[in-house]
Structures are given as structure tokens and as C-alpha cells.
Write a structure and sequence with these properties.
The complex is a heterodimer of chains A (330) and B (339). Chain A is an alpha/beta fold and 330 residues long. Helices cover 32% and strands 22% of the residues of chain A. Chain A contains eleven helices and twelve strands. Chain B is an alpha/beta fold and 339 residues long. Chain B contains twelve helices and twelve strands. The chains are: A alpha/beta (330), B alpha/beta (339).
């Protein structure tokens, strides 16, 4: 039985717009962006938890909130029994050794004046100063490069000399440098060629097996989440609308948004082209979300109750959760 | 047999960077009928965007077309003057939409201004006669926005590009691209930067408009999933050459080239959880140092000595299905099992 490595409870991250002096004069008042709006989920040890949704649904903000790169306004993030949000600086530094974030734009995360070797060595020097002996660290960097299938000679290169796939591998190497338990991967393959993306996916699966890693896999690519994750959640406007074992969510999708999202994914098939559900309109602004169910403005199955009350996230059985009034009907 | 709208034959193109000569397109030949959707797929650097730009002659100055013809509607585009291209072809009969609509719209002008400019230009060359008033153009622009599915177009037309989402900007581009005289649309990764749900909307819009007006589409994308859904035929490119071309069902269902098989096997959509994805070893070769023979042979698991000695011919293996694999041609049909 897998146990929860990280438990997120009712997490809320809001951004405030119009706090400045100018907006006081213009008089537009405070506007609140509900980026993450009451998210609860459990990430099991040694498993991969997939988080999907359209851009602007708050999935990346959630990833950043876990590391307190963005401070939430409420909720709990329990990691190995401790609340990350209540940690002081020392505890937080320890947390950063066991949990790592891989950003979407890897090249943007690298100092263009540092060599690849220095970039990978940086977290080691920072967190484990005891190992800060030149000889040891060079060997460690070489081992890390080998672990991500790169030539150790790559350590003298500069970021601009790297291809997209190499940059991602360096990002992975840096993330595993401190031997973490938990990695948040935010769109780890976006912008890569099919074949290069496949190498990154294979690499991350190998590392998971070797090091017993737990992943939070943030992606808009449903095919990838289906392939990579054991459990998954679908987010829409800061809320989870469906969550469960990946197999269950794909086989017995219960929320109209999940259905539309899965139906919209282009899949290679040679048979009949399936009838697709194509949503009208776009994701509404998280500043003034619609009343009731947030999805009702685009939902093909909307009915009277949807604009009056927000549907709670209820268990349909076997840990498969869904937030939709339709579930009460059958 | 309908006469093809576009017929490209033996198109060969170099990027000449002084000390480095890169062959970006090598004897590319294909044809496209009216109302047909032809998908172009391949890894980055395989020449698919260059092909699109070559057709409308928007190539950078370092590009040099060595050989070949691009016959469009009975005329060789490579022989037209720059003036003729501009007045009759580009933006008129052949239009383009690109991956990043943000870069294609001028940020300091309203959507209105930009659309009206396009309409004026299209009008000037198409029905050279009466000039309409701005008000009429504006009305026409609003109608175009409406037909691309933008809600409340008479209001939104006076917005600036930054006030539009990515999907809406792509709709504006399509609205600009599809004039009444357009017979060929080049879509270069038109939905890559968009969310799946919005991408599905845009693809539906493009194919519907094309079906309505009988417009042919050259749809460039690295996503075989999208091509599977919208393309009638698919062309697989590698390092400037066409490796395989044929009806969509044939390419995806019974591919003949090991490279096509490899591309399909590396997609996570087809594999079950836990099974390793195929990743083709090595990289797309730099275009100035292409391997001899079949340019894929260093990465191909099935390569034999002859593959490095002989450039494989592009042969019709079954009706309308072309492939350029020597082994397939000599030994007959193979099962390319990469894993």
C-alpha cells in the first residue's frame, strides 16, 4: 500500500491586482485572481501524480506554491508529516534538498555565464558545503551527467551551446543532484521533438525506478499524463474538477470538462475519425469566475442548478472524485 | 483526374552561409489538389518550414533555390517577379498562418487597423476598380471576425492584439488569411502554441473554411495526432528529403519507411503505461554534413552497408503511397520492429 508522501489540503493561492497607488487614484479597487482555489490532493510515495488543465488553470502556480516561490493565502502542504508552510528558513532549506522543481523553460533557468558543470554543482555547493572539495564535486557532476545520458565532457559547455533536449537533461541532472525524494516537473517536454521528448520520458521513468522518486507531473498533454502517471487530477480555474487513478479517470471519466479535454486530444488512429466534443469559448477570467460551477459557461450539459451552487468534489467510489451536479442525477 | 493546384517538382534549396552550404531541401516533389489537406511532418530541422516559405518565396536572403519548379495554378512561382508575387499570389491566392500569432500582429495597431489594411490591399489587386470606403472595409472585417468565431466582433475589433488571447489572435490571422480568392493556405504549426481545446477549435475552423471554399491546405505540424485527424495525405520529411508520402491511413496504418515507424512508436499516446517509448538514437544531422546515401542510415537500426552507399529512390510502393527506403524496395515489405 502506497503511503502519502505529500498531502495538500485546501490550498489557496491568490494574486492581488490593484494594490498600488495608481489604482487607488484610478479607483478600480482590489481585484483578486483565484489562481489556486481550495485544492486538496495526496501524492503517493514512489508514484507519479499527473496534473492537467488548460493554460491559466493554476497548475503551474500550484507547483510553485509547493516550494513557496509563491506564498499561499491558506491551506496546508504536509510533506513527510511536516507542514511546508510553517517551516522556518532552516527547515525550508532541508525541504529543498529532498524536493526539487524542474521548470518548463530550462534554458531560462540557467545562468548564461556559468558552465554546465558549475550549474549542476551549484545546488551541491549550496546545500552540502561539506562536499565542497573540488575533486569530489567534479566526479559527482560527471556521474550526474552520465546518469542523464550525457557525455561528461558536456560540463565545460555553456547553456547557449545546448540543444533543447540537452537543456532538459541538465535540468534533470540538477534536480537529482541532491538525491531528492520528490520532484515537481512542470511541462518537462514542452517544445521538444517527439523523439527527444520520448528520451526525456524514458529517462525520468528510469530515474524513478532507480532512485524511488515521486513525481508531480504538470502537463497539458493528456497523452503524456496517461502514459506517465498513476494518479491524476484535472484542474479548471483553480479547482480540481476530477481526480483519481489515471486508469479510472480515462476509462470512466465523469466530468464533462474531462470528457471534452480528452476528446480534444489529437490521437493517431487509422480507423474512423471519432466524433469529438469541441468546447466553445475559452477559459473565463479567474478574476471574476462565473457563479456556481466555474465550468458552466462552456459546459455542453449545463442545467439550472449549475449557476446557483458550486458542485462539491465527491467520491464516486474507489477514490475517484468528481465535482459535477450531474453525478447526483444518476 | 483533377489537375493539381500546386505541383512542386525537384525543388532543391541551399542555405549559403559562406563557409557552410546547407542543403535544406533536396529534390522535393509533390502535388496538392484543390480542397485537399496535405500534412507535412518531421522532426525540427527537417525542412518543413523552409518548404512552406519557399512556396511563397519568403525565404531569407541566404537561401538559394538551385533547381526545381513550383507550379501553382499553371504558373511557375519561381519565375514570377517579386511584384507579381506580391500583387497576385502572396496574401491573395496563397496565404499563411504561423505558429506564433503574437509575432504576426503589430502590437501598436488595433486589430481593426491591421485587418482593414489587409482588406484594402487584397481589394486593390483583386477587383481593381472601385475603392470602397473605410466604413465598408470595417464592416467586412467584422464579418470576417464573425466567421472565425470571435464573439462580439464589432466591439472586439477596436481592441489591441494584447487584449486578445492566443486562440483569438490565431482566429484573427485566419480571418486575414482567408479572402475570397484564396486557393491555398499554408498553416505552419498553427495550433502548437495553443491549448488542446482551443487547438481543436482552430483546426475545426480551418478545415471547415477550407471545405466551404475548396481551399487546399498544406498543414505543417510535428504532431501526427493532429495530422491523423485533419489530413487527407501525409508527407514525412527528414533532413530536407521526403521519406514517405501517401494517404493518411496508409502512412499511419501501414508505414513503409523505418523512420515513419519510429516516429509513431515514440508517441506516448500509443503506448501503455510502463512500456518504454522508442527514442531514435542520435540526432537529425546538421544540414551541411549530411551522411552519404540514405541520410537516415546512421540512426537506422536496420541499416545495411548499401544504405550508406546509395541514395534511395523515391518509389511508389502501392497506389499513391511513396517511400524511399532501399531495403523495403529491394527485399520487399519489412516489419520494422524498433523495440
Amino acid at each position: 500500500m502506497a503511503v502519502g508522501l505529500m498531502q495538500i489540503k485546501n490550498l489557496k493561492t491568490y494574486f492581488f491586482q490593484g494594490k498600488g497607488l495608481l489604482s487607488k487614484f484610478v479607483g478600480r479597487g482590489l481585484r483578486i485572481v483565484h489562481a489556486v482555489d481550495g485544492v486538496s490532493l495526496t501524492i503517493k510515495r514512489g508514484r507519479t501524480f499527473g496534473l492537467v488543465g488548460e493554460s491559466g488553470c493554476g497548475k503551474s502556480t500550484l507547483g510553485q506554491t509547493i516550494f513557496r516561490l509563491v506564498e499561499p493565502v491558506g491551506g496546508e502542504i504536509i510533506f513527510k508529516g511536516r507542514d511546508v508552510l510553517k517551516m522556518d528558513q532552516d527547515k525550508l532549506m532541508q525541504f529543498y534538498q529532498t524536493a526539487q522543481l524542474i521548470f518548463q523553460d530550462q534554458l531560462g533557468c540557467m545562468n548564461p555565464r556559468m558552465t554546465v558543470g558549475e550549474i549542476i554543482a551549484e545546488p551541491i555547493k549550496m546545500h552540502q558545503p561539506k562536499h565542497h572539495r573540488h575533486q569530489g564535486i567534479t566526479q559527482q557532476v560527471a556521474d550526474l551527467l552520465k546518469a542523464v545520458n550525457l557525455d561528461p565532457e558536456a560540463s565545460v559547455k555553456f547553456p547557449h551551446q545546448l540543444s533543447g533536449g540537452q537543456a532538459r537533461r541538465i535540468g534533470v541532472a540538477r534536480a537529482i543532484a541532491l538525491n531528492p525524494d520528490f520532484i515537481v516537473a512542470d511541462e518537462p517536454t514542452s517544445g521538444l521533438d517527439i523523439s527527444t521528448a520520448a528520451t526525456i520520458l524514458n529517462l525520468m521513468q528510469d530515474l524513478q525506478e532507480q532512485m524511488g522518486l515521486t513525481y508531480l507531473w504538470i502537463s497539458h498533454n493528456l497523452n503524456q499524463v496517461r502514459y506517465m502517471s498513476d494518479d491524476m487530477a484535472v484542474m479548471y480555474l483553480g479547482k480540481i474538477v476530477e481526480m483519481g487513478r489515471t486508469r479510472d479517470v480515462f476509462d470512466r471519466m465523469a466530468h464533462p470538462y474531462t470528457k471534452a479535454l480528452i476528446s480534444a486530444v489529437p490521437r493517431v488512429s487509422t480507423g474512423h475519425r471519432k466524433q469529438r466534443i469541441i468546447l466553445e469559448g475559452e477559459i473565463p477570467s479567474p478574476i471574476n469566475p462565473p457563479s456556481g460551477c466555474y465550468f458552466r459557461t462552456r459546459c455542453p450539459q449545463v442545467f439550472k442548478r449549475c449557476d446557483q451552487e458550486a458542485p462539491p468534489l465527491i467520491d464516486l467510489g474507489g477514490g475517484h472524485f468528481c465535482a459535477c451536479h450531474l453525478n447526483d442525477l444518476h | 483526374m483533377p489537375e493539381p493546384l500546386l505541383e512542386v517538382s525537384n525543388l532543391t534549396l541551399d542555405y549559403d552561409l559562406g563557409n557552410r552550404k546547407m542543403r535544406a531541401l533536396d529534390k522535393v516533389s509533390f502535388s496538392l489538389n484543390r480542397g485537399e489537406v496535405l500534412g507535412v511532418a518531421g522532426e525540427s530541422g527537417c525542412g518543413k518550414s523552409t518548404l512552406g516559405l519557399a512556396i511563397v518565396r519568403l525565404l531569407p536572403r541566404v537561401a538559394e533555390i538551385r533547381r526545381g519548379e513550383i507550379i501553382f495554378d499553371g504558373r511557375d512561382l519561381l519565375k514570377l517577379s517579386e511584384e507579381e508575387m506580391e500583387q497576385e499570389i502572396r496574401g491573395q491566392k496563397i496565404t499563411m498562418i504561423f505558429q506564433n500569432p503574437q509575432n504576426a500582429l503589430n502590437p501598436v495597431f488595433k486589430i481593426e487597423t491591421q485587418m482593414i489594411t489587409i482588406l484594402r490591399v487584397q481589394d486593390r489587386y483583386q477587383n481593381s476598380g472601385k475603392r470602397k470606403r473605410r466604413r465598408d472595409y470595417r464592416q467586412q472585417a467584422i464579418e470576417r471576425l464573425r466567421s472565425t468565431g470571435i464573439a462580439d466582433p464589432s466591439e472586439r475589433i477596436s481592441n489591441y492584439p494584447f487584449e486578445f488571447s492566443g486562440g483569438m489572435k490565431q482566429r484573427v490571422m485566419i480571418g486575414m488569411a482567408l479572402s475570397s480568392g484564396t486557393s491555398l493556405l499554408l498553416a505552419d504549426e498553427a495550433t502548437t502554441a495553443l491549448d488542446v481545446t482551443i487547438g481543436a477549435q482552430i483546426n475545426r475552423l480551418i478545415t471547415n473554411l477550407a471545405a466551404e471554399h475548396g481551399t487546399a491546405i498544406l498543414y505543417i505540424s510535428h504532431d501526427l495526432g493532429i495530422l491523423s485527424e485533419i489530413a487527407d495525405r501525409i508527407m514525412i520529411m527528414y533532413a530536407g528529403r521526403i521519406f514517405e508520402m501517401g494517404p493518411t491511413e496508409a502512412i499511419l496504418g501501414s508505414p513503409r519507411h523505418p523512420y515513419s515507424v519510429a516516429l509513431l512508436e515514440s508517441l506516448p499516446g500509443r503506448q501503455i503505461r510502463g512500456k518504454r517509448l522508442l527514442s531514435i538514437p542520435g540526432f537529425v544531422p546538421p544540414l551541411d554534413r549530411l551522411p552519404s546515401g540514405c541520410s537516415f542510415h546512421p540512426r537506422c537500426r536496420f541499416a545495411e552497408p548499401m544504405c550508406s552507399q546509395q541514395v534511395p529512390p523515391f518509389i511508389e510502393v502501392s497506389k499513391g503511397h511513396w517511400s524511399s527506403c532501399l531495403l523495403d524496395q529491394i527485399r520487399g515489405r519489412q516489419k520494422w520492429q524498433w523495440a
